[in-house]
């Protein structure tokens, strides 16, 4: 497995790199690629030295295979997109921080933009997150055409690394006493898709989706939240959708964005 960890050497990026290193500790055939995009104002030699220093710091934490890559460019997103496709990366790990609008524009936008590109799953790491274990993973689903909308292969690859308990949650204002036949059929399909993880299902009726998901994460001791952005859904209007901002910026646990 190839995992790209972009860095600008900030505290947020360094924390995401530490999370990634600890996450893959003990796994086989996994390589972390530390990647920095720099412009003409930066010295290429200094950039290489900073990357090597980060690599040494991570190696002191855990034994993990690592490579470093740099590119001079003014377009970080396109550079990261090209590298991910060239390496056939299976995951990108990035930090995110900032609850003020200014911080969100300068620190958070790149993380959300690369998630929108759908080149591979993106693990969004909150600034205070520290990897300890992945025992409980929550998968959010709208239970609509799950056979085609849920990217089973990339999600299973992550789950197989840790063998966690899988909690599938649907938050919907239209849930009443019993589930419709359609919801039951979709649940059966999801059970079959992830049968080795023995998924448990939760159907919650509420209008406040993001708040209920946060409560669910806390109540169930969730270590990782998996979302499946649709092209005209969660990431389609990055700065207009309050649910997106709240999930990405306020989640206490990392979010794995895996596109359909």
UniProtKB/TrEMBL annotation:
Belongs to the universal stress protein A family. Residues 2-126 form the UspA domain. InterPro entries: UspA. It comes from the Bacteria. This is Nucleotide-binding universal stress protein, UspA family. It holds the Pfam family Usp. PANTHER family: STRESS RESPONSE PROTEIN NHAX, UNIVERSAL STRESS PROTEIN UP12. It comes from Cnuella takakiae. The lineage of its organism: Bacteria, Pseudomonadati, Bacteroidota, Chitinophagia, Chitinophagales.
